[in-house]
Amino acid sequence: MKLTSILAATTALTMAAGAASAVDLTLVSWGGAYQKSQLKAYAEPYMAMHPDVNIIWDESSAEAVAKLRAMHEAGNLTWDLVDVDAADSFRLCDEGLALEYEPNDLLAPAPDGTSAADDFGAQIVNACYIPQIVYSTTFGYRTDMVGDTPPSNICDVFDLEKYPGKRSLEKRPINNMEWALLCDGVAKDDIYSVLATDEGQQQALAKLGTIKDQVIWWSAGADTPQLLADGEVVMGSTYNGRLFSAIVEQNQPIGMLWDAQVFSFDGWVIPADLPEDRLALVKDFLFFATDTQRLADQAKYISYGPARASSAPLVGKLDGTDIDMAPYMPTDPANAQNVFYYNFEFWADYRDDIDAKFQAWLAG
Amino acid sequence: MSDMTDTGPMRAADGTPLKKSLARALRRQKLRALALIAPLLIFVLVTFVVPIGDMLFRSVENQIVSDTLPNTIQRLAGWNPDSGEIPDEAVFAALAVDFQAAAEEKNHTKLGTRLNYENPGMSSLFRKTGRGADDIGKNFQKTFTGFDKAWGKGEAWAALLGSDKWLAATEGWTKDAGPEPKFSARDEAEFALPLTTGVYRSFARVARADGKKAAADTKPWPVLFNALAEDISSASPEAIAAIGGPSADLLKSAAQGLSSAEPISYKDTFVAIDKGWADLGTWQTIQAYAGDYTPGYFLNAVDLEKGTDGIKKRPDQQRIYLMLFWRTIWMSMLITGCCLLLGYPVAWILANLRASTANVLMILVLLPFWTSLLVRTSAWKVLLQQQGVINDVLVWLGLVDDANRLVLINNQFGTIVAMTHILLPFMILPLYSVMKTIPPAYLRAAKSLGATNWTAFWRVYFPQSVPGIGAGAILCYILAIGYYITPELVGGTQGVFISNRIAFHISSSLNWGLAAALGAILLGAVLLLYYVYDKIVGIDNVKLG
Hints:
The complex is a heterodimer. Chain A is 41% helix and 18% strand. Chain A is built from 14 helices and ten strands. In chain A, strand 1, helix 2 (32-49) and strand 2 form a beta-alpha-beta unit. Chain A is globular, with a radius of gyration of 23 Å. Chain B is mostly helical. Chain B folds into three domains: 2-57, no CATH class; 67-294, no CATH class; 322-541, MetI-like fold. Chain B contains 27 helices and two strands. Chain B has helices at 2-7, 18-57, 63-68, 70-76, 89-104, 108-116, 122-147, 154-161, 164-170, 187-192, 194-210, 222-234, 237-241, 248-260, 266-273, 280-288, 296-301, 321-352, 355-366, 373-384, 389-397, 412-436, 440-448, 453-481, 485-490, 498-507, 512-536, and strands at residues 304-307, 310-313. Chain B is elongated. At the A-B interface, helix 3, helix 4 and helix 14 of A face helix 6, helix 7 and helix 26 of B.
C-alpha cells in the first residue's frame, strides 16, 4: 500500500520534471492577425502534438534583419525561426545570417507526391527562403467617397480630378516608384530598366510630385485601414489582408482595387549557426508547419494565399463564418489579372540609392 | 622664527615630512572612494561607454574591403582610376582567387552590401559573380587532377603548404583531441606561392573552426587550384624547385604540365559572368574604398561624397542630412521655448498654491508621464487629424469651412504640438522645485518698497528662477534632439528629425556605418551646444531643486 503510493508520487514527480524541462521554440513574426493565423494554423496543432515544446512569439519581424545581425555579432542567438518578407530574406542570406537549405530535404512533399521544390516552385526566391504566403500590396478606397464609378485602374490614384481627396502611400520608394512610372506611360516590362537610370527615377518622382501635397505617408501596415475608416483619405495602399479585415471583420465601407497590385511573399528563414539540438527542433517544426494542409489552414484565418500550389484547392471559408475566402485572395484568378511582380534583385541593389533620393525629395 | 629655519620642513609624529604624509593619507582616501564607486564605474564603462564607442567606431571602420579582397587591393594600388581603362589581367587573376575564397565563407555578399552603399548595383554584381566564379576554380581542379589524382585529396595540399612542424603536430589528429594545431606555412612555399598559401590559410582556419576533420582530410576548395596555377605561372622555376616536403615532386610535374596548358583570360571570364566588371565605376569604387578606415560615412552624413577627383558636394537631389540636422536643432529649440512658455506659469501656480491643492494638480502634470508615449502620440492623431475632434469643433462653430479643414498633423505643427505636450513635465518639474525654494517674502518686500507687479517679478522673482529654467531647458532640449517616435508618427515629411534617419539606417537600410557617423555628429553637436550653454549661462547656475 505504502509502496504503491510512493511509486505513484515518484512517477508524478518524474512527469513534473519532464514538463519542467520543456524546450522553448522562439518564433519571430509580425504580430496582429497574421501572427494569429500562424498560431492557429500551425503553432497550436504542433504544440498539441508535442506537449514538451513551448512556442514563444517575438513580434520583431519588422526589425528582424537588424536584430539578427546584432545577435550574430554579440554571439547570442535567441531566435529559432524568423518570419520575414522576401526582400529581407535576400539581405539575411547575403549577410550569411540565414541558413541555406535544400527544399526537398527539409520540406514535406505535396500529398500527390510532387516534391517540395516543385510544389513551392519559383516562390523559393533564394537559397535561404521558406515561403508561407503570397500577399499583395494594393489600394483600398472609400466606397462612399468615390461616387458611382469606383476606381478600377491603378492610375486613378494619380487622377486628382476624378477622385479628389487625400491618398495614403507608404513612406518608401518601393512600389510607389513602379506605380508612378506605370501611370506615366512606361511599359510594364520596362519599368525596372527605366528605374535603374537617374532620369527614370526623376520621372517617377515627378509623377509622384503631381499628387505629393495630397498624400499622407504611412509607415505601419495598420495606418491605411485606419485612415480609410476615419475618412481621412479617399484611397490608400496597404497589404490586402489588412483591407480584408477592415472590410469583412469591421464592416467598413471600403472597396479593394485589384490592378497592378504588387505581388510578394512572406516566409521563414532559419538563423545561421543555430546549435544542433535547436536546429533539429526547428526542422521538425518546419516540416509540419509548411506542409500542404497547414498552409491551406492558414488561409482560413487571413486572406493571404498559400505559397504551395497544392494548398490552393484546399482554401475554403473564413473560420467560423460563411464567407468565401477566394474573392479576397491575391491568388484568385479574378484578382490576379494584372499583377505586378516585385523585383527583389533590383531593390536589393537600388534600395539605398533610390531611398536616399526619395527621402530628399520628400523633405524638399 | 629661528627654530623653524633650523628644523627644515614640518614633520609628522613618525618623522616623515608632513606634506608627504598628508598626501599619502589623501591618496588612500581617494583610492577608498574610488573602490566604493568602482562597481558603478565598471558598470557604466562596460554597459555604456564601450558599446557606444564600439558603435561610433563603425563610422570610420572599413576593413571589410581589404579583408575580403586582399590580393586584388594590393595589385590594384598601381592602377590609375582616371586612365579610362579597367585594370589589367593581373588584377583580375587576383580577383578570381580572392572572390572564390570569399565565396567559400560567404563573405562576398557582405562586401557587395557594403560597396552597394557607395555604388548601387554592386550588391547583385557580387551575388551573381559568387555563383559564377566557382566554375573557374573547378576547371583548374579538373586540369590538376588530370595530372595526378593525388591533387584531389587534402593530404597533398597540407604536405605542400604546411611547415614540417605543423605537419608533425597535426599528424594523427582527431576531433576528440581538442582544436587542431594552428596552421603554419612552409617558408619556401609562402615565398614562391603567396596566393595559394593565403587561400590555404583561410581554408585551414575554416576546417579548424569546423573542428570535425583535420585540414589534411578535408576536400580542397576549387579556388586552391586556381591560386596554385596562378602562382606557378608567375613564380620562377628556381623558387618552385626550392620547395621541399612530400609534395615537391607532385608540384614539379604539375608545373611542367601547366606550362603547356592554354592560358585563360580572367578578364573575359569575369566580364562574361557580369558585364559590371567591365565598368570603370566598379573599379573606382573598390579602389576608393580600399583603405582600412574611411571618411566616406562622415562625408555622406554631411552631404558630401568622395569622387576620383577629391571631395565634392552630392547632387542636389541627394542632399538631405544637413537640412535635417538644422531642422532638428531649430525645432528642438522651438519646442523647448514652447515648453518654457507653457510650463513657467504652471510651475508658478503649483509653487504658490496650498500644498494639498498643489499635490492634486501635480498629479495632473505627472499623469501623462505614466501614460505610454505611443498612446499619447496616437491621442494627438485623433485630436488633430482633418476628420478629428478639433477640426470637427471648428467646423461646427462655423470658424472653418468643411471643405477646407485645417491641416494640423503630418507636418511640423503636429510635431511641435505633440512633443511640447510630451516634454512639458521635464520643464515643469525642475521649475517647480526651484520656485519652491524662493521665499514669497521677497516679492512682498519688493512691492512694499514700491515696485510694480511687473518689476517685482522681473527684477526679483525671475532672476531667482533662472537656475530652474536652465535645468528644464537643458533637459527638454537634449531629449527633443534625440526624439524619433513622435516625429515619425505625427511629423509627416516636414516634421521628422535626424534621429528618424538614424533609426532608419540602423533598423532598415542596415547602413550602420552611416548611422554611426550621423550619431557621432549629433552627439558632437549636443556637446558643443552644452559647452556654449556653459559659457553663456554657466552650468553652475543649473539646479534641479
